[in-house]
Design a protein that fits this description.
By secondary structure, the chain is α/β, with parallel strands linked by helices. The protein has six domains: 160 residues, ATP-grasp fold, A domain (Dna Ligase, domain 1, 2-Layer Sandwich); 76 residues, Up-down Bundle (Acyl-CoA Binding Protein), CATH 1.20.80.30; 90 residues, 2-Layer Sandwich (D-amino Acid Aminotransferase, Chain A, domain 1), CATH 3.30.470; 36 residues, no CATH class; 125 residues, Glucose Oxidase, domain 1 (3-Layer(bba) Sandwich), CATH 3.50.30.10; 328 residues, TIM Barrel, CATH 3.20.20.60. The strands form seven sheets. Strands 14-24-23-16-17-18-19-15 form an eight-stranded mixed β-sheet. Strand 20 and strand 21 form a beta hairpin. Helix 4 packs antiparallel against helix 5, helix 14 packs across helix 19 and helix 21 packs across helix 22. The chain is elongated and about 105 Å long. The C terminus is likely disordered. The structure holds phosphoenolpyruvate and magnesium ion.
């Protein structure tokens, strides 16, 4: 016997079920399941995804398929008491694609298939409604020609417009039966002109043409691109659903609509949706007429409305999740055409999940898994009002979520001045640490260059400000104080709005909605905390950031970038004096000026993080970033420091580097300028001793950046330990502290066992580790990475989602090497990946102890860590070294699970 390729549903003869989603696709499995549990569906049958696979592989349908389709069609004729192609009660069908995952880019629906001149006349006679019959016919010709024959729908729309104009009417609904009959003839002539063939009259030919088009649509470039971006295998294939037609356009007792069992934007438990009386499904989607709110259906079609409410209840109970329904009412009889888990906003997802636990439908574990961590961003930041209409200038990288409006300013000084009185958006080619004062006061930041870990992106995320980065389409004209994008010129002082969640740059001031952290949110997060194994820390440089992060549930600071403190107020002059000092004595004076300021910074942070660990990283960026630029600034600084300007210029030039990212930065600074390490260590330990004396529990962890060799770490640690001993001796007390290192260079990862001998912890700097592993500058990557990702050369921006295959292999290997030397070595991550859900899943899988991320991403990381633990269920960290190949298998499994 031939394999089974077709499954019937409805009329008490259902063969499929919801468990068969892979074989029947989401839509087919949903129809079968609805029929099974007594929800009214029009009968029909599903051709399996396996046929699609066989057809695409072999270029032909499998033996037995045609017979099985014919048998199912006969069964459908019996169930409906109609005949396909019949002269009296013609059976008409809809044909729809349906893969296991809902997928844009595949074939749309074809309705009313089976109509030709003969059956249209029969339909008119059977329904007693000529207009209905010919309206159905013209819709069918139009849809079929568009989807199957490739004649674009707009040609048909033009003919409809011509007819309406000639008849002096404005609405489609005013077209008479004769108009529609004539339109069908004109549509067919149009098809002949375009395809050089007659429109297929024979229903069997129509049916196989449609089946063919569905299978073919699996392989279109758009569908392929969608699958690649979303990690869906090309091998799954789509099913074809052939369903007997029910008509919502058979008069005032008919209609069609969509409904959600709970409000998809707020999560409230009430039926939500839209409905049109006397209309076919496409009218709701096409927006030709304004649909009614679903509540209006109660008056228009009370019985059907109550049946719908009952079906919604049944389906939600059955699926234990909010459903998104499509339905049609034909002459007072309700039919459900589709059910699937409803898409929802982050806010709705949280509320639905928590309420379903309270209703006893799902467990807290399920509730936690129901909320996509990425969606939490929407709850934590202001959002563009979803109802607002916008003038889009361009779309670039969504570098830091949230939404903000302000007046355009092009330089940070201007931002600092203007930002004190009114909202501003700082627009820069790219930002550097020097722009910090302007960034702090801006509502949002827009840059033309740079990627997801560019300075602007990192700083904005840290401050919870929205940022759109790498907007290559924004053409700056600083001389004229304007930029242009999308054909529009925007001048300084004009209002723009940034949407850092989607990367949109919008002209004008667009209303935003504020986030609110509800009780539901806190309850869900508490459940998540109970399940996760990874700890979640934050990257914070100020007491204020630390407090925000703590409110979001941070369990310590994983990265305090001390260089950000160097730009505050007039400290920069002292920093410059330190760098430009020509003698040890001069440097000691400058360092002495900085010491109390740094000490006060650390005291503030230690207080804010009372009882929690605080990882402080010693100075990292190349020194020239702190130095004056241009003759005017040099002259000004020379005057302030009492130096000869010429000599100063020479000194500044001495610090110039061709490739500063790979130059004199990180621990290389501390090694060549040990005074800096001394000063920072002293400030840390004095601050720790001071606040400890006030009753604060301090746990400092000093982190040495950009270490490439064990020797570098050894030398820097020696200084730190010496300073600690000295401070403790002077103060006659001590505090517990750790000294560790960042692993952010491939050489450090490769020699992690040697490095671990001198380290009390590791923290992966995955921003630099990505940059150096790929040999790809993190500040320039924004120029072409989006193209790489769009073309599928890379699956994701590796500065956003960890490149598990390459960078991840280094992370895994270095962790094993380090723990091979020190079994209980604490290992974390403080690159931006620490707040990216997919990367967090990987960090869990390779047994890290914590991730650290920007304050506003802390809840995202907490939830992602809970997902990782629940999906894995092995909560013990992997301590024992194992071959790297094992890790690869786990990575693949983690990705597949994702
Ligand atoms: C890193 O490189 O991942 C890191 C955290 O350091 P920074 O971004 O400051 O270079
Ligand atoms: Mg780094």
């Amino acid at each position: 016997m031939a394999d089974r390729y077709v499954y019937f549903f409805g009329a008490g003869e259902t063969e499929g079920s919801k468990e068969m989603k892979d074989l029947l696709g989401g839509k087919g499995a949903g129809l079968a399941e609805m029929a099974r549990i007594g929800v009214p569906v029009p009968p029909g049958f599903t051709i399996t995804t396996e046929v699609c696979r066989l057809y695409l592989r072999g270029g032909r349908y499998p033996d037995g398929l045609r017979e099985q389709v014919a048998a199912s069609l006969a069964r459908l004729e019996r169930a409906t008491n109609k005949t396909f192609g019949g002269d009296e009660a013609p059976l008409l069908v809809s044909v729809r694609s349906g893969a296991a995952f809902s997928m844009p880019g595949m074939m749309d629906t074809i309705l009313n298939l089976g109509l030709n001149d003969r059956t249209a006349a029969a339909l008119a006679a059977a329904s007693g409604d000529d207009r209905f019959a010919f309206d159905s016919y013209r819709r069918f010709v139009q849809m079929y020609a568009d989807v199957v024959l490739g004649v674009h729908a707009e040609h048909f729309e033009r003919l409809i417009e011509d007819t309406k104009r000639a008849r002096g009417i404005s609405e489609d609904t005013d077209l008479s039966a004769d108009d529609l009959r004539e339109l069908v003839a004109r549509f067919k002539a149009l098809v002949r002109d375009h395809t050089r063939a007659d429109f297929p009259e024979e229903p069997q030919e129509q049916l196989w043409g449609a089946i063919h088009a569905v299978f073919g649509s699996w392989d279109t470039p758009r569908a392929r691109a969608y699958r690649r971006i979303n990690g869906i295998s090309d091998d799954l294939g789509t099913a074809v659903n052939i369903c007997s037609m029910v008509f919502g356009n058979m008069g005032s007792d008919s209609g069609t609509g969509v409904a959600f069992t709970r409000d998809p934007s707020t999560g409230e438990r009430r039926l939500y949706g839209e409905f049109l009386v006397n209309a076919q499904g496409e009218d709701v989607v096409a927006g030709i007429r304004d649909p009614l709110h679903i509540d209006g259906m109660e008056q228009a079609l009370p019985n059907s409305f109550h049946e719908l409410v009952e079906a919604a209840r049944l389906l939600e109970d059955h699926y234990r999740d909010a459903q998104d329904l499509e339905f049609t009412v034909e002459r007072g009889r309700l039919y459900l055409l589709q059910t699937r888990n409803a898409k929802r906003t982050g806010r709705a997802a949280v509320r639905m999940a928590v309420e379903m636990v309270d209703e006893g439908r799902i467990t807290p574990e399920e509730a936690v898994l129901r909320v996509d961590p990425g969606q939490l961003d929407q709850l934590l930041h202001p959002m563009i009002d979803p109802g607002a209409s916008v003038h889009l200038l361009t779309t670039a990288l969504p570098a830091s979520p949230g939404a903000a409006s302000g007046r355009v300013v092009f330089n940070p000084d201007e931002a600092a001045e203007r930002g004190a009185h009114e909202p501003v958006i700082l627009v820069r080619r790219e930002t550097s640490p020097e722009d910090f004062h302007g960034m702090v006061v801006s509502q949002g930041i827009l840059t033309c260059r740079g990627g997801m870990t560019s300075h602007a992106a990192v700083v904005a995320r840290g401050m919870g400000k929205c940022c759109v980065a790498g907007a290559g389409d924004v053409l700056m004209d600083e001389a004229r104080r304007q930029f242009s994008a999308g054909g529009t010129t925007v001048k300084e002082g004009d209002w723009i709005t940034l949407d850092g969640t989607t990367g949109r740059v919008i002209l004008g001031k667009v209303p935003t909605v504020e986030p609110e952290l509800t009780d539901d949110f806190h309850r869900l997060m508490e459940w998540a905390d109970g399940f996760r194994r990874l700890r979640v820390r934050t990257n914070a440089d100020t007491p204020n950031d630390s407090e925000v992060a703590r409110r979001f549930g941070a369990e310590g600071i994983g990265l305090c970038r001390t260089e950000h403190m160097f730009f505050e107020g007039d400290r920069i002059d002292a920093v410059r004096e330190m760098i430009l000092a020509e003698t040890g004595a001069q440097r000691a004076i400058a360092v002495a000026k900085l010491l109390p300021m740094q000490r006060a910074d650390f005291e503030g942070i230690f207080r804010a993080m009372d009882g929690l660990p605080v990882t402080i990283r010693l100075l990292d960026p190349p020194l020239h970033e702190f130095l004056p630029h241009g003759p005017a600034e040099i002259k000004d600084l020379a005057r302030k420091l009492g130096m000869d300007p010429v000599r100063m210029r020479e000194q500044v030039e001495r610090h110039h580097e061709s490739n500063p990212m790979l130059g004199h930065r990180g621990c290389r600074l501390g090694i060549t300028f040990p005074d800096i390490t001394w000063m920072q260590a002293q400030a840390i330990f004095e601050a720790a001793v001071n606040v400890q004396a006030q009753g604060v529990t301090v746990c400092p962890e000093i982190m040495i950046p950009l270490v490439g060799t064990a020797e570098e770490l050894k030398r820097q640690r020696k200084i730190v330990d010496e300073v600690a001993a000295e401070v403790f001796y002077q103060c006659d007390t001590r505090v517990d502290y750790l000294v560790g290192t960042m692993i952010e260079l491939p050489r450090a990862a490769l020699t992690a066992d040697r490095i671990a001998e001198h380290a009390q912890f590791f923290s992966f700097g995955t921003n630099d580790l990505t940059q150096t592993t790929f040999g790809l500058s993190r500040d320039d990557a924004g120029r072409f990475l989006p193209e790489y990702v769009a073309a599928g050369v890379l699956p994701d921006d590796p500065f956003q989602t960890l490149d598990v295959e390459g960078v991840g292999k280094l992370v895994d290997m270095a962790t094993r090497l380090g723990r091979g030397v020190k079994a209980d070595l604490k290992v974390g991550v403080c690159g931006e990946h620490g707040g990216d859900p997919r990367s967090v899943e990987f960090f869990h899988a390779v047994g890290l102890n914590y991730v650290s991320c920007s304050p506003y991403r802390v809840p995202v990381a907490r939830l992602a860590a809970a997902h990782a633990a629940l999906n894995d269920r092995t909560t013990e960290p992997r301590a024992a070294p194992a071959p790297v190949a094992d890790a690869e298998v786990q990575e693949i499994e983690a990705m597949a699970a994702d």
